[in-house]
Design a protein that fits this description.
Among the domains are: 41 residues, no CATH class; 80 residues, no CATH class. It is 53% helix and 8% strand. The protein contains six helices and four strands.
Length: 175
């Protein structure tokens, strides 16, 4: 048989058996342990994905969407008060609680300072004035109109999460 590299230490050795991948007992133990760890990690990820609830997927999709909004609006002032400083949030014009069907609508969500988004409950009056300047009155009126309720499936939420994660990566790569 020809010499080959040991998967445990990398040294060259001549195998005694056809499928031997390690030069000795210590290296075989290392290889076996590493393979077991990889298999356990893969099984853990599969189990974790299987037991995630719809609420867990919704939270992850929302986080992905909000991250994309913050990256999309990077460098822009707060939609409500115009400040450029402080922590930046993805603030929804129509809140997720009041209008969950618009939670993933890009025109409904813009960068806001934490003060306006959290402390001033969205600072809605100023948000509306500046939103009209940004996207126009017809679009704001569309956001304010009634919309059909949406019940997202886990598969849809997985796709939303993946799509906004991809869009966020594209923005980061351009910078």
């Amino acid at each position: 048989m020809r010499a080959k590299a040991c998967k445990g230490c990398g040294n060259k050795f001549v195998p005694e058996r056809p499928l031997q991948s390690a030069c000795g007992i210590e290296c075989a133990y290392k290889v076996g342990k590493a393979n077991g760890t990889k298999k356990r990690a893969a099984q853990y990820r599969a189990d974790k994905k299987r037991i995630k609830s719809r609420a867990d997927w919704m939270k992850e999709a929302q986080q992905s969407f909000n991250r994309w909004v913050r990256l999309r609006d990077e460098g822009q002032p707060c939609i409500s008060c115009g400040t450029q400083t402080g922590k930046r949030n993805a603030g929804h014009y129509r809140s997720v609680g009041a209008c969950p069907e618009l939670r993933f609508e890009p025109k409904n969500c813009h960068v806001q300072c934490e003060r306006c988004n959290s402390w001033l409950s969205g600072n809605a009056i100023e948000y509306r004035i500046n939103l009209i300047k940004k996207i126009g009155l017809p679009m704001v009126e569309w956001l304010e109109s009634s919309h059909a309720a949406k019940k997202y499936t886990i598969e849809q939420l997985e796709n939303i999460k993946a799509e906004y994660a991809r869009l966020a990566r594209e923005i980061e790569q351009k910078c």
